[in-house]
Amino acid sequence: MHIEKNISLKPYNTFGVEAKASFFTQIENIPQLQQALDFATEHKLPVLALGGGSNILFTRDFDGLAVLLRMKGITETFVDDNHVLVTASAGENWHQFVSSCVEKNYGGLENLSLIPGNAGTAPMQNIGAYGTEIKDAFAHCKVLNTETRELETFTLEDCCFGYRDSFFKKHKGKYIILEVTFRLTTHNHHLNTEYGVIRSELAKMNITEPTIQDIAKAVISIRQSKLPDPKVTGNAGSFFKNPVIPATQFEGLKSKYPDIPGYMQHDAIKIPAGWLIEHSGWKGKQIGNVATHAHQALVIINATGNATGREIYDFSGQIIDTVRYLYGIQLEREVNII
Ligand code: EPU
After folding, report:
1. What confidence tens digit (pLDDT) does each residue in 76-90 have?
2. Which of 4, 203, 218, 274 is deepest in the core (most CB within 10 A)?
3. 33 lies in which domain range?
4. Of 127, 220, 238, which is best to mutate to test ligand 1, by the most ligand atoms within 8 angstroms of its C-beta?
């Protein structure tokens, strides 16, 4: 294990903002991780585990030990004539992992194609898109408890997954996810085409009986048309969560704004934050180096490549203020703020 000092974290966050870690290390296995934690304990340093850096905004330098998780490997175990357990180490790129499953005709993750980030951070916020969340195919994950230094296994129930939420998100810093196992189908797939945009994309492709490969292709095409590629324009996907409000509040808003969309969530209503932001006049708007994406107002971008984390944070604060003022709804940031 090699510890470096005063390292730029710009290459390790998809917003591409500058921030320095006073100490930095890259780890490829559990013994190296244990050594890194020993170093942090010895020097009384806080630890920040970094995966793909696709859901993080640095607003300041990190005065501690940043640990880049680079454990690699994918293994599989067949469980019955229609199921396989596939395990990805934390440092595996999420999209490459999903693509490898789709290529082998393992079903369950195809709707989650092209989501930036690594496998190890997927459970943190129960990543989701186009009607699927990882909880739908999740079997278990192996984690390191940073307080006891013990390895633990978390089942689906243990993870307490919710919308962009998990047990790990509520106990930030306590656990480092080492590998994640999914239960996928090998031939009798359950296809999820409930999302209107997927159905229309498949129709455009002239596909009436889709395979999981077709669904992956459709999802990739939709994402490429709506969302900015972080390799080209710095961003962290959706910056805010979609707010969930009581039905009575929604009815009040509906009478004032008849076009406002809302989706039933048990006995409450989920409203697309993208709609609220667009109808607050923020879609495509740029202030200094920061803007919202022209095709999806929920995504904040580092428009010039020169934005600071503080600028992005302040920009997001202005959006929150306008939406609260106009609609009485408090937007919550989905991205982790450091
Ligand atoms: N909308 C607008 N204007 C916009 C954007 C959206 O009016 O600029 C409205 C439209 O009514 C649209 C609706 O919002 O029909 C939903 O938009 P979209 O399908 O793009 O989905 P979203 O709710 O904005 C969520 C996830 C995305 C995920 C998509 C597709 C969250 C916070 N975001 O976005 O996840 O890809 O659904 O399932 O739940 C991410 O988490 O980084 C992410 C990209």
Report:
1. 999 999 999 999 999
2. 218
3. 4-69
4. 238
